[in-house]
Structure formats: C-alpha cells, structure tokens
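User: Reviewer 2 asked us to show a designed sequence for the structure in our supplementary figure. I'm pasting the structure tokens here. Could you produce the per-position amino acids so we can include them in the response letter?
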C-alpha cells in the first residue's frame, strides 16, 4: 500500500513509458507494470521464482529501470575511494563493480555488493527480482551493460551526481 505522497513521488512508469513507446512504435503491445518496493531478500527470491516462467516465453519483453549511485550530501551518500583519483572516477569504479556483479547474473553476489558498498541504486530490489527470475528460468540469459553516464563529474564534496547505466539481457547461446 502507498499513501498519496509516496504515490505522487513514484516516477518509474513515467520513465518507462516513453522508452517503451519508442521501442514498440507501430506494434500493439500490452504493458503489465509490476512495481517492486523495498521487499525483503526472501521476497525478491520468491517473486523471481514466480515470474521466471515469463522469461521463457519469447513474446515477453522486460524493462527493469534503475539509476545507479546518488552521490553527494543531499543524498546522504559520499563514498569516496581516493585510489581512483577524482570523486567522479571513484563513483564510476563503484558503479562499474556493481554492473559487473549484475552481469554475473548471481542475485546473492549482487546482494553482497550492496551490503559492502551501500551503493544508492534505487532499483536494487527490481534488479534482484530480475536476477532471481533469470536464475530460475529455463532460458539461459546473458546480461551485458552497454552504456554508463553520470549527471555531473563530482570533484568536491559540495558536488552531487546521479549515475545511469543501460544493460541488455539476451539469450546466451
């Protein structure tokens, strides 16, 4: 259940629909939105098992949305590993480690990454559900990140940034 303030702040469908309209332009499609809130690890696994069979149907398309690191005092997250150089390079290293972890397809490794880094990946729960789906389906899926961007290059603790990453999941032959 969501109260009105949470519902009005929720924006994941607003992010998905223009993308889906562009991808499926000219095709009749049904959109089945599934909102995944802050569910427990056990529920991520349960939903992943329940939804896994839908990956096996080649007529289904999944779009899982999340931005990555929200860095800066306004986000209450300022992880900085100086060995990577400027702050924005540290953020990139943090996110790329997360991306590599997601590419393994292992939801437990992703959960461990989140526990170790506290990275502020908003869609960590839907990503975890999808990893459990791909782990429990009959189809072998390969996840590959194809693009990474930051809203700004943080150089001081007064700066802030949000990271964005795009991946595709396809059949692993």
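Assistant: Here is a per-position design you can include in the supplement:
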């Amino acid at each position: 259940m969501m109260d009105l303030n949470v519902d009005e702040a929720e924006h994941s469908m607003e992010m998905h629909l223009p993308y889906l309209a562009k991808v499926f332009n000219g095709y009749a499609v049904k959109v089945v939105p599934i909102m995944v809130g802050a569910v427990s690890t056990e529920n991520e696994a349960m939903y992943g098992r329940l939804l896994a069979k839908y990956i096996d149907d080649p007529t289904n398309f999944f779009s899982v949305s999340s931005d990555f690191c929200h860095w800066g005092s306004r986000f209450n997250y300022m992880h900085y590993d100086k060995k990577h150089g400027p702050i924005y390079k540290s953020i990139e290293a943090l996110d790329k480690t997360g991306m590599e972890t997601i590419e393994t397809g292992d939801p437990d490794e992703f959960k461990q990454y989140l526990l170790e880094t506290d990275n502020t990946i908003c869609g960590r729960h839907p990503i975890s559900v999808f990893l459990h789906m791909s782990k429990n389906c009959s189809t072998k899926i390969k996840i590959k990140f194809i693009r990474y961007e930051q809203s700004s290059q943080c150089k001081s603790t007064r700066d802030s940034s949000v990271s964005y990453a795009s991946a595709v999941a396809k059949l692993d032959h």
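For the response letter, you might also mention the following. The longest strand covers residues 161-171. The longest helix spans residues 87-103.
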